[in-house]
Amino acid sequence: MLKNPIPKVTNQLQHRAIGIINGKFTPLSSERLNKGFLIDNKDEKIETVILGKALSLLKKHIDLKKSYYWIVYPKNKNTQNLHLQVAGIWDPYQLNDFPNDSSKTNFSKLLEELDLKDNYFSVRGELVFVNTQKKEIVIKISPATKSKNLKNKNFKLVIKGELSLELLHSFVSLDINRDGNSLKLIKYEVIEKNLSRNN
Fold first, then answer.
1. Which residue from 126, 117, 135 is spatially nearest to 157, judged by alpha carbons?
2. Which of 6, 19, 57, 92 has the greatest count of CB atoms below 10 A from its CB?
3. CATH architecture classification, 122-198
4. What pLDDT does residue 106 have?
5. Greatest CA separation for the chain
6. How many helices and strands (H and E) does the chain possess?
7. Which pLDDT value is given to residue 2?
8. pLDDT > 70: what percent of the chain?
9. CA–CA gap between residue 177 and residue 7 (Å, rounded)
10. Structure pTM?
11. Beta strand pairing status for 45-50 and 16-27?
């Protein structure tokens, strides 16, 4: 079974922002492995933090000289400044039950079988802002957190692209491509229009 790095949505109104990037992780220092940069195949650097779960994988399995497919959560304040949180590493051989003959395998082909590609992000949330002049939109993502003490885990993502002002406060599902430190809209689907009016 090929494990999908970006799982299928379980609920129509499931919020999320998750992507996959191929690159090498360079920690800031050997003492602090959880912070550093992801350097992609064009040598672009993105500020990156490794989350707890992925940190043990990193320590046990990852050769920092090699490129891997990283499963990441994007954060940004504007379209020039992307920050990633690594949630996992997609390596169908080391981390799944595959015959370990990865030398023959083309990872990008495997990704295509899953309808994914390098630098692809799936973003689902509420469209809260449209800047027609700058051609930017802002999506608010409210993760479904079970615990009450994690108040305000909502965050916003700024994305390059154009959506109609009529779609404000609608729940949208976006296919996004990373370009350098920017997230660019490829295509979108409106899942539910004008959420706030229904609340």
1. 126
2. 19
3. Beta Barrel (2.40)
4. 76
5. 54
6. 3, 10
7. 65
8. 85
9. 17
10. 0.88
11. unpaired
